Structures are given as structure tokens and as C-alpha cells.
Amino acid sequence: MVSITIKKATTVKDSADIIYLCDEKQDGLSDFLSKDELRYVAKKFKNDKKRFFSINQLTRIVFVQIIEHDSKEYITKENFRNAGNSLVKRINENKSSSVQIVDGIKNSDYTLACAEGLALGNYQFLKYFTKAKDKQNSLKTIEIVSDKVKNKQAEELTLLVEGVCVARDLVNEPVSYLDAVQYSKDIQKLGKKSGFEVEVLNKKKIESLKMGGLIAVNLGSPTPPTFNIMEWKPKGSKNKKPIVLVGKGIVYDTGGLSLKPTANSMDLMKSDMGGSAAVVGAMCAIAKAKLPVYVVGLVPATDNRPGQNAYAPGDVITMMSGTTVEVLNTDAEGRLVLADALHYAKKYKPQLVIDLATLTGAAVRAIGTRAIVSMGNADKAHKQLEEVSYDVFERLAPQPFWDDYSECLKSPIADLNNLGGATAGQITAGKFLEHFTKDKKGKSEYPYIHLDIAGPAFIPSNDTYRTAGGTGTAVRLLFEFVKRQG
Questions:
Q1: Of residues 8, 13, 90, 260, which has the active-site annotation?
Q2: Among candidate residues 285, 302, 273, 245, the one with its CA nearest the CA of residue 171
Q3: How does pLDDT run across 84-120, given as a tens digit for each residue?
Q4: Using an 8 Å Cβ cutoff, are 114 and 80 in contact?
Q5: pLDDT tens-digit series, residues 311-358
Q6: What percentage of the chain reaches a pLDDT higher than 90?
Q7: Where in the chain is the domain with CATH 3.40.630.10?
Q8: What fold is seen in the domain 5-149?
Q9: Known catalytic residue: 77?
Q10: Residue 260 catalytic?
């Protein structure tokens, strides 16, 4: 991870590259541009309707950014993020180590959004290049010159960007490095660095707890499973009962004995732990920012392989909850490890549980890569989360969660099957998981939201500030949601 610092500055430097944010009136430009340069900008804007200009001065480049405002506030905010991202390449080509964003619009939200897009677009994963230093971006510092932005806001944004980059790094790591055991070691290091507690349950403990889903999926792997518990419980936290975040930690997915049949479909499967990466990244940001909210993160981790004594279609496994599950497809493994974690979460008597997973191809087919499939039974919290999702532009696409979707999860030889029907796979997977949030009488033990991030978690090429590979999807969503609970 290439670190970047976002901080507030009080004065504009003569030698620093500048991004000047303004509206169509272009107020304040005379402080940075000569009369000839002002005339040039005015003429171009009038004749060509250009909204972006770069003026190459002797000691700096002045980027003039006129942002298009939308009737929807969240779209305008996203326009500012995209504007920041659009300048990343130019700034690094100029070998600039720092840039100043000057707030000519007198709006802290928009100015911070520009800094956010710039910082996230600057991300690189260079660990495995032999000449990484030659490829490394020059930009290290973003300074914000604004009367409206507070020091704490800039510092918090730095921590949030770091959390996103933690998640991106974890997803981008190959399984040759990031197996389940190494994942736990990395989580422990991040916990120590960020300030949250970490407990790792080893295979022997997992077996003693009878986590049948995690044990079954791990049977084909040469590497033992782990179950990772992260806890951020600050003094004076606003909630006595925690918010529990559960992330799918399948560090690599071959499909098991139901080997993935689609050409090239296995190439990206190091990303199948994207849900857990989002939880880890969010926990890092939450703890570093010292948010006054009690949060627990749970990550069951293993790979899914067809080797050794791999579980097979037709097997019946007994979950931690005691529920029996007929395995119809070993590639529907994520829900099995999550089910044990959702049952384990009951011990905390949580106020809310949110799970995140790259769970189904059905989610991608339904809405593509631009949103997160969501569902659950926590109506009030779900609505709050949806509001946040627009603000951070990690939008939710809520799905119906009717009980009759559970009908196709019935099995003739066990309590449930792990596959569901041929349609609405993203919903039936969520209904499968919901079963494990209930007691033996079928009553919910806690409010529950399921997020399927299969679409946006990993992308083949840059999509604005969402860089190719792991995107860190849902870190910003979780952080802002938790922040608003405090």
C-alpha cells in the first residue's frame, strides 16, 4: 500500500500544484492566474464550454476544475470525487509529491470528496514488481486550503482511505501468500497497528465448537481454517450491544469438487474473501478514528479445494447451530462458512448484524458491478444503510426478502439444501443465511442485513477512483454507517 496523507493547510504555496475548485462564476481565480490566463480560461469556457483547464506556470500547474452540479446532492458529490480522480495521472506525470486543493466553492463536503477521489485513485498494488520504486506514484500529500474543512475531517479522511487500501491490498494478494493462516497473522498485525483486539480460533477450537460449515469447506485444503474475532470496544461507547460485521473469508475458491466450469472463472477467485477484507478495512478505520461505537468483526477463513478428503455433492453436514444441510453444490461454500459465523454472533446479543460476501453470480447478473445487492429483516437499519450508500456512492439495490423464497431450500434428507433454485439465487442465498440468525423456534435473535458484493468487489480495469483489482467496496459504507450510530 502506498500511503497518502490528507491534511489541512492555511496558505497557498507558490511552488505547489493547485487544484482550484470553483463554480461557473470562477470567483477567486485572480489569486492564482495572470490577466492573460484569466482571459484564456474565460474564452475557453464561453466558446467550448470546457469545465477543466490546466495552466502550466513556471513553478507549478494550476488545475481549474468547474464542477457540474446535479439536482441530486449525492451525484454532485460523486462528480467531485471523479474530478479528483481525473487529475491523478497528470499530477504523477508531473512528479509532484504534494498538491493543494483550494476550496473556491466554500463547501467542505465537496472539497473533501475531491480529495477522497484523488487519494483513492492514487492507489497502487506494487508488492510483486521487482522494480516497484520505478512504478511508484509520486503523490504523497494532499493539502486542503479551506475555511470550511476542519483538521479532524482531513485526518479522518486519511484513515478512511487507509482502510479502503487495506481491503484492496488483502483482495489483491494471491493465495500463494494469503492462505487462511497468513490472513489471521495479517489481521493480528493490523489490529495491533489500528488499536482493535484480535482473537484467532485455530482448527482444534473450530472443531470443538462444531463449526460444521467451516470444517466441511476446509476438508479439501492442505491449510487449516481459522476463525478471526476482531473487537473494538472503546470506553464510553454509545452502544452496549455491539454491531457485528461478518465477512466471508474464502481466500481462494476453485468450486471444490463442483469445480468451476466457466472459462477463466477461477482466475479472479483470490477475490472471494472480498467481504472479509471489507470488514477488516472498516475495523482498521473505525478503530484508528476512535469512533465511539462498539463493533465486532467475525471472519471465518479457508480456501475451497477439491483435494484430500474434500466434501462432496450429496454430503450432509451438521452446522454449529445443529441444522443439517444437504450439499448439492460445493461451489455454494460461502454461505456454509458464513452460517457458522452468524450463529456464533448470537453470543454477543448484538443490536445488529451485517454480513458481507462475494456470494453469488446471480447478484452480478441481476445488477452488474455498480451496486451492492442487499436484503434483510432490519428495516430501520437497512433504510439508514441505504441512505449512507448513496452518500458514499456505494449504492444498495434492496431485494425482496419474502419467506416463500425459502421453499426451494428444502431438502428431502436434511433440514436445508445449500443451493436453492435456478432463479433468484442472490435472494435464496440470503434466506439460507437468515435461517442461522434465528433460534430453534424460528424467531430472529437479532436484526440482520445481508450484503452481496460479488459485482463491485473486484473489477478488471479502473472505474474512476475504483482501481483495477480489489476495490475495497463497502469499507466506506460500513465506516460512515457506524460513525452515524455514534
A1: 260
A2: 273
A3: 999 999 999 999 999 999 999 999 999 999 999 999 9
A4: yes
A5: 999 999 999 999 999 999 999 999 999 999 999 999 999 999 999 999
A6: 89
A7: 162-485
A8: Leucine Aminopeptidase, subunit E; domain 1 (3.40.220)
A9: no
A10: yes
